[in-house]
Amino acid sequence: MTEPTTTPGRRTDAPRAARGIPAPGTGTPGEGTPDAGTPGGFAGAVACEWIKLWSVRSPYLCLLAGLAITGVFTFYYASIARINDHPVEPVGNAAASSAVLAQFAVVILATVAVTSEYATGSVRASLLWVPRRHRVQAAKALVVAVVSFAAGVVYAVVGTAVAWGAFDGRASFDAGTTLRQALSVGLYLALIAALAVGTAFATRHPAGALAILVTLLWGLPSVLLGVGGPELAAVNDYLPHGAGDHFMRSGVEAPYAPVAAMLIVVAWAAVAHLAGLYVLRRRDA
C-alpha cells in the first residue's frame, strides 16, 4: 500500500482527524497534548499567577519585612502606652496600628508582581496565554489579595503577642475582639494589595505606582492630620488608611460604622482596579 504524500510547500485540505491530529484541547490527558491536566479559564489563570508569584524571591522578602515591621512597631506602641500610662485599651489595637507601616510590604509585593512583567516583557506571554485582559488582572489581584490576607492575619497574631508582653497590664484581652481585629487587619491588607495591583496596571512602572500609593496611603494622611483641624481630619476619614483604621481598631470613636469603613476601602480598590483595566485594554502590552 502506498503512503499518501503531500507536495512540499503545499497545504493539505484533509481534516485534522483524518491526518491523526487531535483538535486543540481535545487530546487525552497524558498523551502529550499541551493542555493535558492543565486547568483552563479563570482557574488556569489563577494557577499561573500563583506559580509566577512564588517563582521569585521578592514575595518572601516582602512578607518577612512586613513581619519584622509589625513586631518592632507593636513593641514600640505598647511600650509607649505603658510608659505614658495611657488608658487601658484592647491589645489588638497595637497590631491594627502597625498596619500603617506593614501595609507597604504588601504594596511592594503587589506592585512588583505587575510591573516586573512589563519590565521584562513577559507580560506579552501572559496576555498570549490568557487573551482576556480582565481575567489576567482579576487573577493577579485575587492571588495577591489572598496572600496579603493570610499575611495580615499572621502579622496581627504575632503583633498582638508581642504587644501583650510590652503592655505589661496596660491592655485588655478579649478573644472575640482580638479575632475580629486579626481578620480585619487581614482584610484591610488584602484590599490594599488589590488597590496596588490596579494602580500598577494603570502606571506600568514601579516608581510611578509606588509614588501614587505612598502619597495616598501615608503622605496625604500625614499632611491632613499634621496640619490639624476637624475639616482636614474628616477628609482623612475617607482615604483608604483613614477608613481602614476605623474598622481595624476597637474602642475608638469613628464617624461611621465599621461596615461603612470597609466599604470605603473596597470603593478605593474598585476604582484602582477599573483604572488599571481601562489602561490594560486601551494600551495592551
UniProtKB/TrEMBL annotation:
<keyword id="KW-0812">Transmembrane</keyword>
<keyword id="KW-1133">Transmembrane helix</keyword>
<feature type="region of interest" description="Disordered">
    <location>
        <begin position="1"/>
        <end position="38"/>
    </location>
</feature>
<protein>
    <submittedName>
        <fullName>ABC transporter permease subunit</fullName>
    </submittedName>
</protein>
<feature type="transmembrane region" description="Helical">
    <location>
        <begin position="141"/>
        <end position="167"/>
    </location>
</feature>
<dbReference type="Pfam" id="PF12730">
    <property type="entry name" value="ABC2_membrane_4"/>
</dbReference>
<feature type="transmembrane region" description="Helical">
    <location>
        <begin position="60"/>
        <end position="80"/>
    </location>
</feature>
<keyword id="KW-0472">Membrane</keyword>
<feature type="transmembrane region" description="Helical">
    <location>
        <begin position="256"/>
        <end position="280"/>
    </location>
</feature>
<feature type="compositionally biased region" description="Low complexity">
    <location>
        <begin position="17"/>
        <end position="37"/>
    </location>
</feature>
<feature type="transmembrane region" description="Helical">
    <location>
        <begin position="179"/>
        <end position="202"/>
    </location>
</feature>
<feature type="transmembrane region" description="Helical">
    <location>
        <begin position="209"/>
        <end position="229"/>
    </location>
</feature>
<feature type="transmembrane region" description="Helical">
    <location>
        <begin position="100"/>
        <end position="120"/>
    </location>
</feature>
